[in-house]
Amino acid sequence: MSDATHLTGDLTVAGACEHEARLKYYSASQWTLIWWRFRRHRAAMVAAALLGVMALAGIFAEFVAPYGPVTRDTQYIEGAPQIPKFCDAAGCSFVPFINGTKTERDPVTLRAISVPDPEVRHYVQFYVKGEMVKLLGFIPIDRHLIGLRPESGQKIHFWGTDDLGRDVFSRTIYATRTSLSIGVLGVLISFVLALIIGGAAGYLGGMTDNVIQRATEVIRVVPIIPLYMGLAAAMPKEWSTTQVYFAMTLILGLFGWPTLARRIRSQLLSIRNEDYVIAARLAGARPGRIIAQHMLPGFTSFIIVDLVISFPYMILSETALSFVGLGLRPPSVSWGVLLQQAQSVRAIEQTPWLFIPAVFVVVAVLAFTVIGDGLRDAADPYAEAS
Amino acid sequence: MSKMLSVENLSISFRTDEGVITPVKGVSFTVEKGRTLGLVGESGSGKSISTKALMQLLPGTARLGAASRMIYTAKDGQQISLGNLRHGSKELRRIRGGEIGMIFQEPMASFSPVYTIGNQMMEAIMLHRGLKKREARQFAIGMLNKVGISNAAARVDQYPHELSGGMRQRAMIALTLSAGPALLIADEPTTALDVTIQAQVLDLMRDLQRELGMGMIFITHDLGVIAQIADDVAVMYLGTIVERGPAKEVIRNPQHPYTQGLLDAIPSLDHLHDRLKPVPGDIPSPTARPGGCPFHTRCTQAIAGTCEVHEPPETSAIPGCAVRCWLHTSQGRSAA
Amino acid sequence: MLRFTLERFAGMVVTMLLVSVMVFLIMEIPPGDYADRYAFRKYSGTGVNVTEADIEAIRRDLGLDQPMLLRYFDWIGGIVLRGDFGQAFAFETSVAKVIGDKVWLTAGILFATLLLTYLVSIPVGIYAAVRRGSAVDYGLTVFSYLGLALPNFLLALVMLYFANRWFGADIGGLFSDQYRDAPWSLAKAWDMAKHLWLSAVVLAWSAVAYQIQTVRATMSDELNKLSVTAARARGVPELKLLVKYPARLAINPVVSTIGFDVNRIFSELPIVAVVLGLTELGELLLKAYLDLDMNVAGAILLLLTFAIVFMNFLSDLLLGWLDPRIKLGV
Ligand SMILES: Nc1ncnc2c1ncn2[C@@H]1O[C@H](COP(=O)(O)OP(=O)(O)OP(=O)(O)O)[C@@H](O)[C@H]1O
Ligand SMILES: [Mg+2]
């Protein structure tokens, strides 16, 4: 900070520009500053871009995914990923294509298996006609981002198919929507709870605070996944997928608040007796208003950081619960549900492409962590001002 | 009287995110056996890092200038070039503590909080005096007694946080002296203490220095303290020594405008109604070091066209004293 | 120190009490009660027609018609006074029998994991802090990020896959076939040790990733402390200096989070157990949940949480001993 006052006599042209830049810097709002600092955090920017792409793909899953999440392709069961190519033995083309498949019997096991048919080429097309779906749940479209022409009579499976012939790529896109949205809803629920609980403890203090602190302590010592499991196990078996979905968000949100509530409490406690808060109280403002208008804005940036870094826990918990069969249930698709099909070493050996959803889990969790770190650095008012 | 430490042309630079900065540039001073050199200057003028350089205590980002010479004469008469000692060498370890001891500004932070005072003292004693544990403990208790800590036999087993601030600094002095250094570097040892304790600690240090015949470098930004404790003084401004000489001489007859400013800034009991007279302006940041004489931006007597362009040479108007100021060169006087 | 210990002990007991209330509530959540499920399980498919009155009879027999508060005291009283956790319906025996020596297997896994965690993370974290900014430090940071992002079951699968390729097929589980049901012997213990390491590696993974960062951060702070410079200025040899001053203090946050690590390990246990085929409490807990055998599930949840609370207590004591400032309340 002090540097600005030491601008010594000779203001050359470059000096003047720098001076202006500095003026802009010192008059920028808190959020502009945070954004400027965040922008310089390259890893966090990359992570944010990745997450953005994931979120978009999830939101527009009906359009991005060539097929529905439960559409079966009986021609191509447990099939390997089909990578579009530009060249084969018959020469090259500008438009990527895949070879056709034909069914033959395995000479050893006598099972029917699909083998490539080099005679046929199917060209990969953008914006092709396909299944009729409802974009965002209400806009009917029959076009998809990418796929094969319906006339070809064949489907393309970029990431292969599972044991029922369902397209792993399409399923992963749909699962992205489910898993990310569960994360968002779960975080929102725990945020609201944290605000209420932490707010009450920090604002009221005294006895209320003591009781809440005790309760928080208890929730923090119980191992979280077994706790979630207990609640998830109680979901009636006959519930619909939607009911289970919302129950899951509720369960995840219900116990995600302790860390954030603690943060809010300690921040509130520390500014409870600041003059401006007392002034507001004397002026007769209601507690909710005092907290929201006068106390929270001071540490909103920290709350946001905490929210961002609590995403990974939500995502990993959902994945783990669904993986062991206590979370979402088929026919819902989430990353965890998809990974349920990849529970054994046999799967690694024979159908490794079923693990592709795991890459999404790792990337999403990493991205949230890196963004959280970037935001934390950016929100730190004591970070280098240069 | 003989020189025990002679520093010539010491320059220190740091690699930082904003590029290389050189907060200490061409510093020279000497310390005589049994005498105290006072090092004065405002915050950030480079007093601490100059002395840390002597014991290779600077962080890895620091580099010494190629022309820097630091020659130390050990207790056994051997001349050691402090800049050339290898890291981790036995010789360096002997210098640290055994030859040159250091006391820091924060007595609390200088002790590790998880070991008793005695533990940390005995470590130094066993290292440098080759005593066994039991003897080392006795020695430590003796040392604590010497610095005026009552009930030393009990204090030796206490943790640093169980002592008061003044006590802690006394214990730190005991700890440093127990290794038997010939040269003591005290980096603002009294700044963190309240005034009455300050005077006591200052007295203690002066007495101990006389008794043990040590050389001492006493760092402070208070010329008043210098008058009490130092034989010689060097005034530092922005990494250079602008004036040096016998303490009495410099205080009675300051040559450099900066020294004059510092002396004027000392509040005096006789003139309580006057306003305080601080040296005008702020110390420039090390990244924006002014060219020419570093003090010209705040100097009331600066000679336009000279001071901001050329660095002044060191001249000696009064025998035994030296000053770096254009006002004291024939060239500068004619220009003024 | 005595006062400090007693205070912490009282705190532990209160927390355990509250935890037991919470676990009891969780046991009560699933629709229907023990009698319903017992009758359904016992008689479904047998052709016997179970009437509401039969179920009512079972309910009365077991005291399930009592108000909730009474049942809670009955339940917790049984556990505390007689070590009686009630009946396990899926196995038609007492919960205590079902759990049996799985408690010791679980404890074995826990301690192997903790040992591994600290043996790796403390030295590595210290090294990373001393070599801050080097390639090794950078690599470790990347590892830590990955370690926290990788779902544990996935890691378990991958490890199992490679273990199978390199060490032969019989690496999963806790015992080889010939020892699974054999009585305890030295050979059996050795066999278990040979299987244990895989689970320990998988379970320790994220704890290591986390603790390396903790140690590295504290160690970096400590390295910059004046007390370290002061000790260096006294000529303390560098290695001894590192160990005695900054490293000694960098261990404190690790000690204070032992309970947290145990929590993390127990949290991962049921999931990892599925993949690795471990036959301990985590796996049993999952099974019990899937069967809605809430007496067994509740007992295990309670035991695991008590273990965590107890470890918290131990870590408090250890910390009080390690850091003289704490027990003096400075
Ligand atoms: N590790 C470092 N990296 C970069 N610059 C440094 C470092 N240590 C010191 N400096 C620079 O060296 C300058 C002098 O520091 P030093 O601690 O010697 O000042 P000082 O004269 O002792 O001041 P004070 O009276 O406040 O102790 C500082 O202004 C700082 O800019
Ligand atoms: Mg200093």
Keywords, separated by commas or semicolons:
B: 336 residues; alpha/beta; eight-stranded mixed β-sheet; five-stranded antiparallel β-sheet; 33% helix; C: 330 residues; MetI-like fold; 15 helices; 78% helix; globular; binds adenosine-5'-triphosphate; binds magnesium ion
Architecture overview:
- The complex is a heterotrimer of chains A (386), B (336) and C (330).
- In chain A, α12 (300-323) packs antiparallel against α15 (356-379).
- Chain A has 386 residues and is α+β, with helices and mostly antiparallel strands.
- Chain A folds into two domains: 72-164, no CATH class; 170-378, MetI-like fold, CATH 1.10.3720.10.
- Chain A has 15 helices and four strands.
- Chain A has a four-stranded antiparallel sheet.
- Chain A has helices at 13-27, 30-39, 42-59, 61-64, 168-204, 206-221, 224-233, 241-254, 258-271, 275-282, 287-295, 300-323, 335-339, 345-350, 356-379; strands at residues 85-88, 91-105, 112-135, 139-148.
- With 336 residues, chain B is an alpha/beta fold.
- Chain B contains twelve helices and 13 strands.
- Chain B has helices spanning 47-54, 90-99, 107-110, 117-129, 133-146, 152-155, 165-178, 195-212, 223-229, 247-252, 257-264, 330-335, and strands spanning 3-16, 19-32, 36-40, 62-64, 69-73, 79-81, 100-103, 183-187, 215-220, 232-237, 240-246, 314-315, 322-324.
- In chain B, the strands form two sheets. In chain B, strands 7-8-9-3-10-11-13-12 form an eight-stranded mixed sheet, sandwiched between helices. In chain B, strands 1, 2, 4, 5 and 6 form a five-stranded antiparallel sheet that branches.
- The radius of gyration of chain B is 21 Å and the shape is globular.
- Chain C is globular and about 85 Å long.
- In chain C, α2 (34-43) packs across α3 (52-62) and α8 crosses α9 (186-223).
- Chain C has two domains: 2-92, no CATH class; 96-328, MetI-like fold, CATH 1.10.3720.10.
- Chain C is mainly alpha-helical and 330 residues long.
- The mean pLDDT of chain C is 83.
- The interface between A and B is small, with 7 and 9 residues.
- Residues 14, 16, 21, 23, 41, 43-49, 59, 61, 221, 286 of chain B line the site of adenosine-5'-triphosphate.
